[in-house]
Amino acid sequence: MTGHSHAHGEHGHSHGLVDQSIRRSRDGLRAVGLSLAVLGVTAVAQLLVFIASSSVALLADLIHNFGDALTAVPLGVAFLLRSWKAERRAGLFVVLAIFVSACVAGYEAIHRLINPLAPTHLGALAAAGAVGFIGNLVAAQIRTRAGRRLNSAALIADGDHARADAYVSLAVVASAAAVALGATILDPVIGLAITLVILRITWQSWQTVSAHRGDDDDHSHAGHHHTHAAHDHSPAQ
Predict the structure, then answer these.
(1) Which of 80, 182, 191, 208 has the fewest Cβ atoms within 10 angstroms?
(2) Ordered domains of the chain (ranges, CATH)
C-alpha cells in the first residue's frame, strides 16, 4: 500500500513537471513574440529613415536591430520544443548574430570613411535614433525579465545586448547633431564606435551563455541522479 502511494505520488509529481514545462514554454514564446514585434516595428521605422538619410551610424544600429529580430526564431523554436539543448544552441546563435552584425556595420563605416557621403534629413535621423532607443529598451526589459523568471541564459543574453543597443541608438542622435554642426566625418566615426560596442556586447553575451550552460548541465545531472535514487528507493519500500 505504501509502495502504491509512493508510486502514485511520483506519478503526480511527473504531471506537475510536465505542466511546469508547458507553462515555461508558453511564457518563453510570449516573451520572444512580443520582443520580436517591438523590434520589428523599430527596425522598419529606422529602415524608412535610412533610405531617406543614408546615415552609416543609423545603418549600424539598423543592422543590429534586424539581427535582434532574427534571433527570436531559434529562441522561439527552442521554447516550442521545450528543449534545454536547443535553448543553449539558440543562445550561441544570438552571440553569432551579434558578431556578424558588428562585422557588417564595421565594413560599412570603413567604406564611408573612404568614400564620404554626408547624411541628410537630420531631424528624421535623430527621431530614428530615439525610436531605436525606446524600442530596444522595451525589448530588453521583456527579454531580461522573462529570462530571469525562466532561468534562460539565451533570453538573458539577448536582453542584455538589447539594453546596450538602446544606449547605442542614442549615438545616432549624436551623429545627427554632429553633422548638423558641420562635422560630417563624425558620422562614420560614430558608426565605428557602435561597431566596437557591438563587439564588446558579443563578448559579454558569450560569457553569459557559456557560463550558464555549465550550470544547466549540473542541474540536469543532479536531477538525473535524483531520479535514479528515487527509483532505487521505491522497491525497498
Answers:
(1) 182
(2) 18-220 (1.20.1510)
Amino acid identity, position 2: T
Measured distance CA(14)–CA(27) in Å, rounded: 20
Percent of the chain with pLDDT over 90: 7
The amino acid that residue 141 corresponds to is Q
Residue pointed to by grid coordinates 531520479: 227
Which residues have C-beta within 8 Å of that of residue 11, sequence separation ≥ 6?
A: none
Identify which of 198, 202, 214, 225 has the alpha carbon closest to the alpha carbon of residue 88.
214
Closest residue by Cα to residue 150 from 39, 31, 35, 70: 31
- Closest to 127 (Cα-Cα) out of 189, 186, 172, 166: 172
| Residues 154 and 28 sit within 8 Å (Cβ to Cβ) | no
Backbone dihedral region for residue 118 (phi beyond 0: left; psi -120 to 50: alpha; all else: beta): beta
Q: Mean pLDDT over residues 220-234, rounded?
A: 43
151 to 76, 87, 97, 114, 148: CA distances (angstroms): 15, 11, 21, 46, 5
